[in-house]
Amino acid sequence: MSNEPVRSGGSRRRECLGHLLTAFVTARVDQHRLAEVSEALAGIAEVVEVFGLSGETDLLVRVVAADADDLYRIAGQILAIPGIERTTTALAMRELVPHRLTPLLLRRAEGR
Description:
By secondary structure, the protein is an alpha+beta fold. It has 4 helices and 4 strands. It has one domain (10-92): Alpha-Beta Plaits (2-Layer Sandwich), CATH 3.30.70.
């Protein structure tokens, strides 16, 4: 088994598609409309992942954007979805630990 990390390659693919920025949008959602909100988010091409969270924030939405104006447009689209009550957007400045599975695979292979 190789020690090379298993990565998504997302950063390179995103940049090749002209989307240089990654941002994380947290959202509070009317729980009665969660399915509707999820479907609407899936309809936005720049939304690349959505996670349901516990705690004060309901959703973590990972988006990609071409530039700041594009990010503003995308954040506005998300905020306009019926059932979204509030959003906060944080721009990813740098990827410090890329998506990886190798450490988990190695641990599993070792029987831990």
